[in-house]
Protein 1
Amino acid sequence: MSQDNQEAHEPSKQPTWSYKWEMVVDLDRCSGCEACVVACHAENNIRISGEEEAAQGRAINWIRIERYWEGEYPNVKVKFLPVMCQHCDEAPCEPVCPVYASYHTPEGLNAQVYNRCVGVRYCGNNCPYVARQFNWFDPHWEEPLAEQLNPDVSVRSGGVMEKCTFCVQRIRRGKETAAKEGRRVRDGDITPACVQSCPTSALIFGDRNDPDSRVSHLKKSERGFHLLESLGTHPSVTYLRRLSE
Amino acid sequence: MDLYRRTLFKLLGLTAAGTALPGCEREVHNLVPYLLPDEDIVPGVANWYASTCQECEAGCGIIVRVMEGRAKKIEGNPQHPLNEGKLCARGHAALQGLYNPDRIQGPLKREGRRGEGRFRPISWEEGLSEWVEQLHSHARTSAMITRPVTGTLASLFTTVINSISGRLIFYESTGERTVKKANYLSFNRRELPYYDLAHSDYLLSFGTPFLEHWLSPVSFGVAYGKFRQGRPMARGRFIQVEPRLSLTAANADRWIPIRPGTEGLLVMGIGQILMREGLTRLASSQQASLQRTFTSFSLDDISAATEVSPDVITKLAHELSSANAPLIMGGGPAAAHTNGTETLMLINALNMLIGAIGRRGGLQWAEPPDSPVETVQPELSSEQMLTALVQEFEEGSRSLLHLYLADPLFTLPPSLKFERVLKQAGFIVSFSPFFDDSTSMADLILPDHHPLESWKDHFQADTIAVPSWNLSQPVVRPLYDTRAIGDVWVEAAHRLGGSLGEQVPWNTFQDMMKTRWEAVLPNHHPPLSFETRWRNALQQGGWWPVDVPRQQISPDMPSITYELPEFLGNISDFPFYCYPYPSLGLSDGRGANRPWLQELPDPLTTGMWGTWIELNPTTAKALGINPGDQVRVTSEYGSIEASALLFPGLHPDMIAIPLGQGHRAYGRYARGRGVNPMMLLGPKFDRQSGSLATGGTRVRVERLKGGSKLVMLDQSKQHPVLQRMQEMGGVS
């Protein structure tokens, strides 16, 4: 950090900082209220599918709440699991893309370049988390619903694969603001829409390269685990186990 | 002129290229909201305005992101003491109310028969004169049913309605009147307490759906996060008692299913054990009056009636006594019976026994604020009071009906005969911005602005640590030829004239608000001008004190006469309890015209875009019902048909159905979709509060021929990968 400060004070040198964006999901806080789901729709211009298309399994959610029923009445339990793109370091979706639409950014994001995508859906097929969703048709908003669309995020057309970006537009804005002030992005500067809205603060986002960030601290928790860890995908999302009495 | 974003960008592009005509520039400037000076608009740079969410009655502070005159995103106001920057699914979807394609775009007058749905656009002048004429010709026979507004608007409604000897009814179907009634009877306070969940270490909840839709779900969510993981050494424990495992119960460490309507008995059982074993935290002299209340049933009888074993009851009592800061909450299904208020009063008494009243981590009441403007929150009317209104309209003592953001035709069961009011009324005026079921029966529609287009203020004292005065300001220019209801009522007051004109001397509703706010906003040292204080309050989203003293609550509790719940329909013809519950996204139905909420999967069933009927799997098997079968649920009062869904967390004698669908009107996303379980309910009320006993009608279920589709997000049968995830879990 001290080196960063030194760099920032030298006006001649354009400082560069390396980030590694990661998320922590505390399942002991998550209540399954789905505030994140609608926040994500609003921020990322996710289209409305309608009843007919949703019945075909074509509804798009970049983040969804999975629920797992266990046991039989009266000894029933439900567990909630928010699932979004895990931004894997060894992402199974990346090597199968014939046009490099799915690629890994230096900051650990698993990015999707929409205007490269030719819609072969190999990536969706290879994603063990079902995080990638295909646009089977062009999006449509009844007027004037489109007035709400976020101008920072492109609208995806039919034939294109899409998924969670960790709100890359917010990451970029946060980095620009920090760079203008000649500093590294501070912990808490950048919050993806889901993290921002989460009432129970179950979602935490930050820079893994900052040893003092909350994400770095929480990742070390003994409650931590990754989804389908045995597949060796090395996800950037760490889950913290829900506790019981 | 209609300018859309694309056009705007084109125009801006031209300007940048330096080839623009001056005329074009003026057009572009017309797009900005009037609140913002033109020179502050920077294309591509967002402005954020503080306001107040009006999607439910909780009153969360919000900030709205506005770019080039368009509202883009709503987030929680980080400074607001209620929601601390957080927001729920419904709060986000307020944008789809603003930009809803089915908004009423200007004043309308009915053509053809009432309810036929034919309307003719008229001018505001014509609409206002027609309304004022009707007020004159229906002197002293007006009634107004409004959602429970507070602050300046409540004061304006009260002034106008009183001056014309009308009747003002604040109604909300999910208003938790039983909780308010029990609170008043037990503690003599109208305001609900601040539930200090964040500092409690043990929560025993009787049915409260506080993580879904109960009172103030976002503030409870914030507190819940702290309750579980906000303290380094302590993790709060949480037990939920209710017949259906709700989203809230799914989060509990233990779910205790109970026979519907017997929650009060369980409370008595716990109280008995605490008293018998000397585990209470109340002086024995103060305990004496509660002794009789808590021992009127034996523990064995209680166990038999509730289906909760004596061991479990004893364990609950011991856990309550050994916890440092235990807290008990009650509401939702526990209060949905004829004995609802009594059950909640028993819970209040049990809170007194465990010393939770006024304690950190318990229930706290702020001292009523010493303010020159009235701080009383309007009292909500019960469904029973609305049936009295039906009688008044039939007798003719009432004939002019006003409706504002209340849809009694949809939210009340038909057995209460509210449609008679709409048939009998001499004239119906609605101020709703949408064609809800009741508004489509109106004779005259004077549509209100959307909350993001208008001025309002709100006083919030329930479930909040410090009472707050919240402000709503217009963040975008009105989209249509609508008018703020406040301005319309100020104008009507002027036209009615006489003493009313003197009582409402302001030109606009905003002026009226500002006069009141001169009294609300405290002046500091050095003194600031009112305009400065007003601007600061607008920037902050309102005004609230940093802290207020807590009020002492007398430990003397009124005696409680508990009675077992009563049900409509005999058990042999109608063997099942029925519980229609407010849906997470659609609530009682007001969210049904927002596509985001229609497509939001219910977290427990993943159902969307429709209605389903929940059955316990064992019950379904006995009835030969498979998931997806079309089933009919029948009560003495009506029947509905929908798709069957097996719900593992449901009492075997209960049928549960989500509310929110089954609209006859309310726009393209809501109309004709699903069914409204209110069709089933009979006129059974909570004895003390007069609230509809939504769990008080028995039903039977039968399988019909064929299946019916219910759209679900859970596509595990189509996606073997999801199946694998479910099997491998990884969740523990």
Protein 2
Amino acid sequence: MDIFFQQLANGLTIGSIFALVALGYTMVYGVMRLINFAHGDMVAASAFVGLTIYTQVMGQATSLVAVVAIFFLAAVVMAGVGIILERLAYRPLREAPRLSAVVSALGASLMIQNGIMLIWGPQMRIFPELIPNISWEINGVVISLIQVLILTLSLALMVALYLFVEKTRMGAAIRASAIDQDAARLMGINVNKIIAIIFIIGSSLGAVGGLFIGLYYRGITFNMGWQYGLYAFIAAILGGIGNIPGAMLGGMLLGLFQAFIAGYVSSTWADAFTFILLILILIVRPTGLLGERVAEKV
Amino acid sequence: MKRTIRNMLLTLCAISMMAGLSWADTLKVGVQAPITGSYANEGQGIENGVRLMAEQINAKGGVMGKQIEVIACDDQGTAMAAAICAKDLVNKGVSMVVGSYTSTCAEAAQKTYFKAGVLQTSDGTADSLTEHGYWTFLRNSFPNSAEAAFAASYMVNVKKYQRIAVISDFSSYAAGLAEATVAEIKKAGGNVVTYAKIKAGAQNFTPVLTNIKSKKPDVIFFAGYYSDGGQLRSQQKALKINADFIGGDANDNPDFVKLAGSNAEGAFIINVPSPDVLPYPIAKTFIADYQKKFGSMPPSIWGLMNIDGMRAIIHAMEHNQSFDTKKAADYLHNMDKPLDGITGQISFAADGNRKGGAYVVKRITADGSYSNEYAQ
């Protein structure tokens, strides 16, 4: 039984990283009907930005304040990159056929990936051990401090995002833009501003996810964004793309699914089963577990 | 009629192009290495080393009056890119290729070099590399089977482990080493409790390690590369699996220690001796030159092994007073007296394997350096 709970803990940790990244996909899709393929590479970039902030800005300080500052600064930088990305790669194509925007997204993905390689080099970069190496063993199940941090911080961010979208005026404007952009404009909502906000939130959450990857696994490479982006994208579809609680649920479920498949079946097959799951979801329930709002499909 | 004339013209063009290549007054040396990607650290070490060696030979007047021209190709550590690199280097008219770092990439490129009569020297340790009967292939390291026998006897007879867990990835090198080690352990009467495979670069190895934990091993033997090995070690300690960790030769890279961080201490690595302890005078001067030029130590022994392969081929050409690759290979396969190399004496068996080779077990200390634990 302790194996089961250990895999559960492992799966929830990686699942919450997937969920944070998946939120970026799902929010952009919700409002713009665009799959932002560059998001995974933004996540990778944020890990490199965080590492640079640690070595250049923080002077390699390892205090709690420094760690919080790294998260904050990396999120701010990536939010800026997100706005630039939207402005340059997506806004000019807002009225173009959807395929053009998708191609533009793929192009942006390649540009960011190669940009990371040019700036930080092609070799693996290694994060310092910023989070102390503490862990607890409860009935044979080992949980480390960093796992607890990842899980609680991710959940806190997701709850905050949910409350923001559901309870504030700005959130109502986001929801309105997601349902019908023209009607939202008629109601006096500045849709361009809403889309900019979506990119700020999505990129900052992705930045937190990227830093978690760096802190948890320590080794980061310029091309890792593709893998995490793909998993997060599957998580978003699993939960129902365009649906914010869906992305959270999808991320967690995918993390658990992978941990149990790798644990009980074979790690060889973890990826294959993940894609089989994606295909099954698309066949049986194309709108995902929590379902997308389909009102606009009329 | 028109067609014949066109064909003749085309043939003429082709002949003059080929002639242009063979009349060029440089000796073209190809480097096929993972210059980007997960193993970039090693790939760049190989490229830097070859360029430095070429520079030094050129400064002394080149090879029989010809200057060496280095042409590098990045195989990214993937078989697909390696096959493209092989074609590219052959088209550019190289007469020898140094690399690649991984067995998978060396193997994907082998046949192309063989068909073109281009000599290839690689540190790839997969036994299969020398089993195709290609006279063009010269292994500058020692094969997995030798390491497997050493690792198995160390674990079973020296450390007397009772429950051995083996992990590998899916590459030619790692799977080959793991399977050979498992076979050798069984032959020596040892007990392999599990043999698990991971996907290289997957980062999250906790599901596999959690399973291994339930088998209660007293040692984990990892055949695979340092970029995964460091994370495996780190995650093993995080899961509080109280077993020794022994990494195969490809874990011998400073990034292993950096990735595992404070968890690196106490891990063992099996390999031939490290570059910094190489006692040979030629090694000391070359490593000092390398440090002066690139500001760091060579990342591992592998780059130096490859350079020894390159030096051996050039030595053979100079001995024969001919750039003919077949003659050079014939000489190398039947050397009467080994060449003094950076990594020890170098000579080859008829199948292209490097002769000799002794392994050591290194223990990673608290400050991340190696201490010698056991020597063959």
